[in-house]
Specification:
single chain; alpha/beta; 6 strands
Length: 143
């Protein structure tokens, strides 16, 4: 099973992102309004980083209120770790666990085609286990 299974049916135009020049204050507003924990940061349509709640907290702790005027480029996590739609789910999950992050931009070449979270992967894994359990119950009941 691959990342493609998660992003199938999602419209890349619905991905919430920001430009490198977006102020931290505006990025925070977007994260809060959309109720998301991170978003890809783009330069000319190309993913160059990710800005996350953690980035915001660390920056505010370090720089105080003046951090709100900084462009996200100054505080984002870069370069962004990315995956392709063809990446196996287990490989993506292992990388997230090993590197301790929770979001992946999904690229087709350099084009952003999806943005997934560890929650998306966990949901897919739970659905898979539930499907296997149901199939096993059906097999036992008909056998």
């Amino acid at each position: 099973m691959t990342i493609a299974r998660i992003i199938t049916g999602r419209d890349p135009a619905d991905i919430v992102s920001c430009d490198v020049s977006t102020s931290l204050a505006d990025a925070i507003t977007t994260l809060a309004t959309k109720r998301i924990g991170a978003m890809p940061v783009l330069r000319g349509g190309t993913v160059v980083g990710i800005v996350s709640e953690r980035d915001v907290i660390y920056c505010l702790s370090d720089k105080g209120r003046e951090a709100l005027d900084l462009p996200v480029e100054a505080i984002m996590t870069a370069p962004a770790m990315t995956v392709a739609a063809s990446t196996p789910i287990d490989d993506a999950l292992a990388l997230m666990s090993r590197r301790r992050f929770r979001h992946f931009p999904v690229l087709d070449g350099e084009r952003l085609v999806g943005f997934i979270s560890i929650g998306d992967i966990v949901k897919l894994k739970i659905d898979e286990v539930e499907h296997e359990a149901a199939a096993m119950r059906d097999y036992i009941q008909t056998g």
